[in-house]
Specification:
Blueprint (H helix, E strand, L loop, with lengths): L2 H27 L2 H4 L11 H6 L9 H32 L8 H33 L6
Helix pairs in contact: 1-5, 4-5
């Protein structure tokens, strides 16, 4: 398993833990804004890169760099589609009030970060698998 794949799997584990924490806090507290504290676990995604910096071997080769870039583009495309859809939905839902309550804005930041990290990790694993299949299934 390459370093990029390990990082993607780690990010999927962290984002799954975030989702579980948010749902558990929502069940326990019954307060949607308080349950957003579960998204603080997303900060764990930064620790993986610090651990591997000390190693002497290169973290990514050209293929991994290409996959990483494409996954980043995919994740931000998904983010912008969801962001625009969220904005349109809120505008339509609160058209008569002329103001959107903060309860609908604050979660968007956390959900957006969660969405970008999750989609990027899934895209890395999918692109890596597709790349290996295209290259004839060479072992890595």
């Amino acid at each position: 398993m390459t370093s990029l794949q390990r990082q993607a799997v780690f990010h999927l584990i962290v984002t799954t833990a975030c989702l579980v924490a948010v749902i558990a806090l929502l069940v326990i507290t019954k307060r949607p804004l308080a349950s957003l504290a579960g998204f603080a676990l997303i900060a764990l995604t930064g620790f993986r890169s610090f651990r591997e910096r000390g190693s002497r071997r290169p973290l990514y080769d050209e293929r991994d760099d290409q996959i990483n870039r494409r996954a980043g583009v995919i994740s931000y495309q998904v983010f912008w589609v969801c962001f625009v859809a969220w904005g349109v939905a809120l505008t339509m839902a609160f058209q008569k009030r002329a103001a959107v309550p903060i309860e609908y804005i604050a979660p968007a930041v956390w959900v957006a970060m969660w969405l970008v990290v999750t989609v990027r990790a899934v895209a890395i694993l999918a692109l890596d698998r597709a790349s290996l299949a295209q290259a004839g299934g060479g072992a890595r």
